[in-house]
Specification:
Blueprint (H helix, E strand, L loop, with lengths): L1 H37 L3 H12 L17 H33 L4 E6 L4 E4 L1 H7 L3 H4 L14 H14 L1 E9 L5 E12 L5 E10 L1 H15 L9 H18 L13 H8 L1 H18 L7
Length: about 300
């Protein structure tokens, strides 16, 4: 009985040891398989997921040979894609920021769709044309037509846009209050990859002050400041034109010279202010006596 009991104990120990070795082998095999599947330790995988979740895409863990399809490899690929996406997003945000600054520039900006319906305007446009976004969005640009340009002018403008995608030039527009003003306009057609026009962008520059300055310079150069009549230089130029026209067309033109008697005495006795007033009155009355194409 004692021998039998000892044998049973021995058999039990052998079975226990064999079972333990089998379990250890299974666990070892499972651990190796799990490691191959994960590509790294569970701790490293957990830390990598945490970093990706926090937006840190700069973690670099080498993937061993044979683990290209592992969880770690997949996470690293995902990290690279997220990093590229983040960089592109930052670039797009920077472009949008720059575009927003440009949109609020000193030049007026008007954006339409491909059919010419106004989608957006900036504050500078409102300052130039008088229309707020609420008043003009949804309208067509012809709301700004001044009536000073012919249909041929607009045909040539749109022909240039259709051919080259661009047009620029001086144009007269009508302000919201009805005032006609000059502006420099640049129109650009925005096209899709398929070459279809999706938007038109109009860039407006108010040149009213520039035109006023030009007119003032011209007036100072060619007209008398006191009487607003052509000065000697402009009179000489017009006389040359008349003589050329007379020789070419065999026409006759009249030239009349008028002298003001005792003007010097009036200046000396009543003062230069009265003399200036007399010159203005004579200039106005003579201008009323002739046609618009005549020169006084």
């Amino acid at each position: 009985a004692i021998i039998t009991a000892d044998n049973n104990v021995l058999i039990f120990k052998v079975l226990f040891i064999a079972t333990s070795l089998l379990v250890a082998f299974i666990i070892l095999r499972f651990s190796k398989t799990l490691f191959m599947t994960l590509g790294s330790s569970a701790m490293e995988i957990h830390m990598l997921i945490q970093k990706i979740g926090k937006g840190n895409f700069n973690t670099r863990i080498p993937t061993e040979y044979g683990m290209k399809g592992s969880v770690l490899h997949g996470l690293l690929l995902l990290q690279d894609k997220l990093q590229v996406h983040e960089m592109e997003q930052k670039k797009n945000e920077e472009k949008l920021r720059i575009a927003a600054i440009c949109f609020e520039s000193h030049d007026g900006i008007l954006i339409t769709d491909g059919n010419g319906v106004i989608l957006s305007v900036n504050k500078a446009f409102t300052d130039i044309a008088g229309y707020t976004p609420e008043e003009i969005v949804g309208e067509m640009p012809h709301i700004l037509n001044s009536g000073r340009h012919s249909l041929e002018f607009y045909h040539e403008m749109w022909d240039s846009i259709d051919r080259t995608g661009y047009w620029h030039g001086e144009i007269w527009s009508r302000h919201r209050d009805g005032e006609i003003f000059a502006k420099w306009l640049n129109i650009t057609a925005v096209k899709t990859k398929d070459g279809i026009v999706s938007h038109y962008i109009g860039l407006y520059s108010d040149i009213s002050e520039y035109r006023q300055a030009q007119d003032k310079i011209r007036k100072l150069a060619f007209f008398d400041q006191l009487t607003d009549l052509p000065n000697r230089f402009l009179l000489s130029e017009r006389l040359k034109q008349v003589l050329h026209a007379a020789n070419r067309n065999k026409n006759h033109y009249a030239l009349l010279f008028i002298d003001l008697d005792n003007f010097k005495s009036l200046n000396d006795t009543l003062g230069h202010s009265i003399g200036d007033l007399l010159l203005k009155q004579v200039a106005q009355r003579l201008s009323l006596c002739v046609r618009k194409e005549d020169t006084v």
